[in-house]
Write a structure and sequence with these properties.
By secondary structure, this protein is of the alpha+beta class. The protein is built from four helices and eleven strands, in the order βαββββααβββαβββ. The longest helix has 14 residues.
């Protein structure tokens, strides 16, 4: 990983907390698969992105801000440390900017003079952009895991927790859109094979 710095980004405590907690829900809980046992964080083109998958579900979240950040893979145990820091500051400072610095194999999170240094994971997050089709397709029947669908309601969203489902065809992933005030969430749910 190359050394890079991003200081005082225009992402709020609340947005970063929602991005990380929402993505962590869909990350693989098995730490033997380090490339998907965490949240992928990157920034480019005026957006901060998070991605996570457990091979059955995928979520991508983005929020507007300025700056660049190299691609980083944050293990789930390190995500917990970051969200604990952010959560303790949500009530009174939810609109304050958070400072993120990436250097070598570490991410440093700075907030109100406090800093937290967490280890980044080795590995490459899988390429997922090509599997999201933006055009809905008529489908005759699809089976999905109800528990996995219910997990999407746990992702931080607007109070109504409204989910939009778009079908891409028979035996293709279902696109799940989760409405949020400032985060653009797009997710995929893999279909189940019925025998």
């Amino acid at each position: 990983m190359t050394t890079a710095t991003l200081e005082k980004i225009d992402v709020t405590v609340n947005d970063l907390y929602d991005l990380l907690t929402g993505a962590a829900i869909m990350a693989d809980k098995d730490n033997s698969r380090s490339s998907i046992n965490g949240v992928h964080l990157s920034a480019a083109d005026g957006k901060l992105y998070v991605k996570a998958t457990d091979r059955y579900r995928l979520i991508i979240g983005s929020v507007d801000y300025s700056g660049d950040l190299p691609e980083s893979l944050i293990p789930l145990d390190q995500i917990k440390k970051i969200t604990d820091l952010l959560k303790s500051n949500l009530k009174n400072t939810s609109n304050l900017p958070v400072e993120l610095n990436v250097a070598d194999t570490y991410l440093t999170v700075g907030l109100l003079g406090s800093t937290l240094k967490v280890s980044l994971a080795d590995g490459q997050f899988p390429s997922v952009e090509k599997i999201i089709n933006t055009e809905p397709v008529a489908t005759s029947e699809i089976s999905i895991n109800g528990k996995f669908l219910a997990d999407f309601a746990k992702v931080p969203a607007v109070k109504s927790h409204q989910l939009k489902l778009r079908f891409q065809g028979d035996n293709k992933p279902v696109i799940v859109e989760i409405l949020h005030d400032s985060i653009n969430w797009t997710a995929l749910l893999m279909p189940m094979r019925v025998k």
